[in-house]
Design brief:
The chain is an all-alpha fold and 178 residues long. The chain has helices at residues 2-14, 22-29, 33-40, 43-58, 67-83, 85-98, 104-127, 137-153, 163-173. 72% of the residues lie in helices and 0% in strands. Helix 5 (67-83) crosses helix 9 (163-173) and helix 7 (104-127) crosses helix 8. The radius of gyration is 18 Å and the shape is elongated.
Amino acid sequence: MRRKVLDAVLSCLDEGLVKSSIPDIAARAGVAPSSIYRRWETRENLVAEALLTESDESIPVPDTGAIRSDLIGFAEGLAAFLASRRGTAILRAMMMIEWSEELSELRARFWDQRFAASSVMIQRGIDRGELAPGTDARLFLQMLIAPLHLRHLLLGGDPATAIAEQVDLLLAGAGRTP
């Protein structure tokens, strides 16, 4: 049931239906709305789980043994996701959430969990001596992913452009040469 419901949420997002109700989602999933309420309680919890599950599955956090290749792999995964139909739909949904007071907590929870999951790359880099102790993982990751979003959303270009060069600049700025 869980997978069917999460897929129904993502299907709604694919179609631009950010504010779909639980009964709408239940109908798409072929389950009773009460089943959704029992498991998730609110639409926001349901949407958050769908977005996080899709992100976790579509944008894995690599562990190659080297920070540079981890960051390149992560950025390439994100770029491929952003360029996909589903990724674009989720990105649009996240932008609409930005302007919704009722969903602002969802946005914060999504990004907190995504940064927590991907921060392990930075911590491994610190532990291996590839990054300076005290490197701010969240800021570092923001600097990695922001240009990908910029290229895709505002410049209309391929988000995967110049990823290795971007990672090398970040690493040099963090006090490590590639």
